[in-house]
Amino acid sequence: MELTVLSISFAALLLLGVPVAFSIGLASVATVLYAGMPVAIVFQKMVGGMQIFSFLAIPFFVFAGELMLYGGIADRIVRFANSLVGHVRGGLGMSNVLGCTLFGGVAGSPLADVSAMGSVMIPLMKKEGYDADYAVNVTTHAALVGALMPTSHNLIIFTLATTGIASVSVFSLILAGVIPALILTICNLAAAYYVAVKRGYAIHGRFPGWREVVWSFLGALPGLLIVVIILAGILSGIFTATESAATAVFWALLVTALVYKTLSFENFLKACAKACKTTGVVLLLMGISSAFGYFMALYEVPQKTGELMQSVTTSPWVIFLMINVLLFVLGTFLDMAATILICTPIFLPIAQHFGMDPVQFGIMMLINCALGLNTPPVGTTQFVGCAIGGVSVGEVMRSILPFYGALTACLMLVTYVPAFSLWLPNMFR
After folding, report:
1. CA trace torsion 203, 205, 206, 208 (10° rounding)
2. How much is the pTM?
3. In principle, which of 37, 257, 260, 306 could form an S-S bond with 350, CB 3.0–4.6 Å?
4. What is the pLDDT of residue 74?
5. CA distance 210 to 216
6. What kind and span of H or E run contains 42?
7. Whose CA is closest to 327, among 297, 365, 356?
8. Which three-class secondary structure state does DSSP give residue 265?
């Protein structure tokens, strides 16, 4: 009965429009009161969930991303991407894909990626004759690659969500995301090219020459080096994953303030304010989700969910598909961080029981949650893209299938072919 109170109160609060963090907290309090336990349990679990040293990586990665966003890195990345593929049919769309992927590697946030790249590329694509829905879909789906990049704070959130369930290192998760990020980029390029050919978009300009490619690459290189620094630093043992996040902030300040000289003091304050706000939201979610996770463990939610799934089928292939479908449905209503924190304690033990590695599960979950960022009613990246493009969500959804197909293809490859996510981590074990 306590589990029923927990589930129904949480669902009812979400349907009433109560923010996710408060819905989780109030549902936990309601369960405690019904069970006759002291309310102090909720607050003890909240505080315990926030007092984790590796959590320090999250505010640093968020701050580094905001500095890159407000520091003008996007313009140089756009120039480099456009010099490579801007001359082919649908080339501006493909440039958008490459630009968003590269900036996602720097910022590590799909939302920051859409905000930075979308404000540059979507108006430019519309000006060059591309439809607004195409420009928005290309931008918002390419931005999702940022969730898998080394600077992504969602990687840290997942490792924290596995505490007490499995041992997952941040470095293994960073390595595991490299090949899926490349696959997702290729799938997005294919989808952008397919739609461009189908709609008969014109070819704009011609190949500028390798000289321009080299110069534009050198211009973007200081910003792009952050990914190399993080990987090389952790791999060589110079710093830990948490220390790499602080290094990312230092490098972002160095590049934007001293190399590019594009970070004004006003934009620096905006970056600080946005990073504080995002960190506060994530911290609140992590603390409250710890209390929520305590009750799910207490009332054996993972075990009961696993038993329910096994009553339907014992095939690992079908079980993994069911997990993906459930994650997708929940991801349409919950933010990415909330989905990771709530669903990892439920589905990770089930996936492990049927032979899936925790690192592979983490990449699968991140891709699935990223898909939720582009799905109403809580598709934050899609809303930002539509606002920039001046187009309705309904119009964008009518032409979204090729891009959904690209993301789903990558998700299925990661789910059913372990080598795509585990080959690199296994090389360094």
Report:
1. -140
2. 0.79
3. 306
4. 73
5. 10
6. helix 40-50
7. 365
8. helix
Q: What residues have CB less than 8 Å from 166, skipping those under 6 apart?
A: 348, 352, 358
Tokens of 9: 């109160």
pLDDT of residue 54: 59
Residue 208, both tokens: 């500028």
Q: Which residue has the tokens 């001293």?
A: 258
Q: DSSP character for 299? A: T
- What is the number of domains present in the chain? 1
Q: Cα-flanking dihedrals φ and ψ of residue 389, to 5°?
A: -80, -10
State which residues of the chain have pLDDT below 50: none
Q: Residue 180 and residue 183: Cα distance in Å, rounded?
A: 5
Q: Determine contact, residues 157/362, Cβ cutoff 8 Å.
A: no
Range of the domain at 264: 39-427
The pLDDT of residue 169: 84
Give a yes or no: residue 11 inside a domain.
Answer: no
Kindly state whether residue 394 falls inside one of the protein's structural domains. Answer: yes
What is the torsional sign of CA 293, 297, 300, 303?
positive
Contact, 99 vs 77, CB < 8 A? yes
Within a domain: 9:
no
Is residue 26 situated within a structural domain? no
**Phi and psi based region of residue 77 (left: phi greater than 0; alpha: psi -120 to 50; beta: remaining):** alpha
Helices (H), 108-169: 110-127, 132-143, 153-161
